[in-house]
Design brief:
The protein is of the alpha/beta class. The protein is built from 7 helices and 13 strands. Helices cover about 25% and strands about 25% of the residues. It is globular, with a radius of gyration of 21 Å.
Length: about 260
């Protein structure tokens, strides 16, 4: 916070009592003043939902430890703008129980909490344990990366998505997002009254093998660190779409030729 020791805001989507959150706060202890602001219950796969239709309530559970009856993004927003005495120097979300690889980052409450930090102008990272319940190695990884973020910063509008494999890790690799192969994701069943219901996500997770991807790294025993940029614009496609302008102008949709994107 520019007043001596840095302030670290910790959140998650598994809830305030999740063992991964406890391991994360413990792993970051000593790097600065650690504040925990997390949902009062599990909020997995809620994405970047923000609560705007009802008031939020905050319960103080202990020194620098707060539970919120809202979403992960709510927790970071409240932490930064309403609970902490000053803006934190870094936001760390996790340690999530289960991976957040490839396309799944779009659903993840863990990643979205870090996104909220970035939107508020704060360097942020999201940490997930791919499998197992031994969070201590992931806590060490989170500490090492948080220390670097505090010292070196991050590029604008960028967060780090970190996935830690189970067991002894070989080290850290910087990766790109992989792609999930969606198959058998919807399971159709019939309830005792004869009515049909569905489970989304019923199929086993399958991934396209790709060199340099987060999935390839964790499958080989490496920690994957993927920088995610919040500007979702496909700039290459934007330049390609400039070729549409003549057709659109002919149909009256554009007033005239404009300077094309470069």
């Amino acid at each position: 916070m520019g007043r001596g020791q840095p302030a670290i805001l910790v959140s998650n989507d598994d809830g305030i009592h999740a063992p991964g959150l406890t391991a994360l706060a413990k792993g970051l202890a000593g790097l600065g003043a650690v504040y925990v602001v997390a949902p009062d219950r599990e909020r997995s796969t809620v994405g970047h939902a923000l609560t705007l239709h009802r008031p939020l309530r905050v319960e103080r559970l202990g020194p620098r430890r707060y539970a919120v009856n809202g979403m992960p993004s709510d927790c970071v927003n409240l932490g930064v703008l309403g609970i902490l005495p000053a803006r934190p120097d870094v936001v760390v979300s996790g340690i999530n129980q289960g991976s957040n690889l490839g396309d799944d980052v779009t659903y993840s409450g863990t990643v979205s909490a870090a996104m909220e930090g970035v939107l508020l102008g704060i360097p942020s990272l999201a940490v997930s344990l791919v499998e197992g319940e031994d969070y201590e190695p992931a806590g060490r990884v989170a500490r090492a990366l948080t220390e670097l973020v505090l010292r070196r910063g991050l590029p604008p509008d960028t967060l780090l998505n970190v996935n830690v494999p189970a067991g002894e890790v070989k080290g850290i690799r910087f990766t790109r997002l992989g792609r999930r192969v969606y198959s058998e994701k919807v399971v159709e069943e019939t309830d005792p009254r004869g009515k049909t219901y569905y489970w989304i996500g019923g199929g086993p997770p399958l991934w396209e093998a790709g060199e340099g991807t987060d999935f390839a790294a964790v499958s080989a025993g490496w920690v994957s660190v993927t920088p995610l940029h919040l500007d979702l614009t496909n700039h290459e496609a934007l330049r390609a779409l400039a070729a549409w302008e003549d057709d659109l102008q002919a149909k009256g949709w554009t007033p005239g030729r404009r300077r094309r994107a470069r």
